[in-house]
Amino acid sequence: MYKKFLIVACRKNPAAVNITTQLSQFRKNPLLLSLKEEAVGFDFYLTEEEVLYNENLDMDKINQYDFIIFPCTHKSEKGDKSLSIHAPGNWRDAQLGGEKTKVSKTSGLFQKKLFENLKQNSEKYNLDRYLITLECTHHGPLIEKPCLFIEIGSTENEWNDRRAAFVIAKTISETIDNFQPSKYHEVAIGLGGPHYCPNFNKVQLESNIAISHVIPNYVAPITEEMIQEARNKTVEEIDLVVLDWKGLGTSEQRQQVLDVLDKLYIRYKRTSEIKK
User: Fold this and answer.
1) Contact 66, 48 (CB under 8 A)
2) % of the chain residues with pLDDT over 70
3) Which of 53, 87, 88, 96 could form a disulfide with 106 if both were Cys (CB 3.0 to 4.6 A apart)?
C-alpha cells in the first residue's frame, strides 16, 4: 500500500535529531530504493525550522512520497515522560501551524500497527518509565499526504534519551518494513475524552479496531463538520465511530453527537462496548 516513506525532521528539534540519528542505522541503500519501483523504504528530509508550519516545508518534495512521518518533541506542563503518536490537524484554531478547522490525512491501519509496535518495543527495551499513548489530533502542518507524528516527551532529559529514540527508530523501521493492511480491522474515528487517550489506547491495542483521528471533548461542541473532516481525511473507509462516553461532556453534548452520527448514518460504539 505504502512504499516510499519520508521522515521529516527539524535540525533544531532535539528529539527529532535524536530519533533520526538512531533511525539512520535502519535505512536501506537509497540507491536500491530509487532503482526498484517495488522497494519499500524511507528517506530523510531535514528542515531548518519547525515542521509544524507549512511555510517551513517543501511541499513539492513531500508530495513525491506515499506516507510522511514526523519525529518530534512533545511538551507538557506536567513534564510527563511519554512516547506518543497522533495525526496533525486543527479542530478549531491554528495557533501551532496548519489551518483552522482542517486536519491532515492519516491512516488508521498504519497508526494502529505503529502504536502496537511502539508498545511492544517499549516493553522489550525496558522503557517502563514512559507513558505510551495516543494523542488527539492537534497542531500543524496541513499536508495532503497521509502522515503521523511520533514524539518523545516532555523535557530535555527525555528528548535526548538515546534509548527512547532507539525504540522509536526501531518502531518506525519495523512498521515500514512489515506493514500490511488487514481486512479484519475496522477503522474508526475516536470522539471524546481528554488530550491523551487512555480509553482509545486500550481499543487500539486490545481490539480489532484501528483508530485514525481523535476529536477530544475540549473542542466541544463536536460538530458535523468536524466529524466529516475526520472521515474525509482518513485514508481508509470509516466503519464506525468509537465514543469515550463519559468523556463526551454533558448529556446534552452526548445527545448532540449521537444526533449528528445518526444523520450521517455512521455506526457507533462506546469504548465499554468493544470486545477486547
Assistant:
1) no
2) 97
3) 87
Residues of the chain with CATH 3.40.50.10700: 186-273
The CATH number assigned to the domain with range 186-273 reads 3.40.50.10700
The predicted structure's pLDDT at residue 32 = 63
Per-residue exposure over 57-80, b if at least 16 CB sit within 10 Å of its own CB, e if not: beeeebeebebbbbbbbbeeeeeb
Question: Mean pLDDT, to the nearest integer, of 161-184?
Answer: 96
pLDDT for 187-210, tens place per residue? 999 999 999 999 999 999 999 999
Cα torsion through 46, 52, 56, 58, rounded to 10:
70
CB 9 within 8 A of CB 56: no
CB 199 within 8 A of CB 247: yes
Query: Which contacts (CB < 8 Å, 24+ apart) does range 77-82 have?
Result: 78/154, 79/154, 79/155, 80/131, 80/153, 80/154, 81/129, 81/130, 81/131, 81/153, 81/154, 81/158, 82/130, 82/131, 82/132, 82/133, 82/151, 82/152, 82/153, 82/154, 82/158, 82/196
CATH number 3.90.226.10 given to 4-178? no
Encode pLDDT of 226-257 as tens digits: 999 999 999 999 999 999 999 999 999 999 99
- In the block, cell 452526548 appears at 254
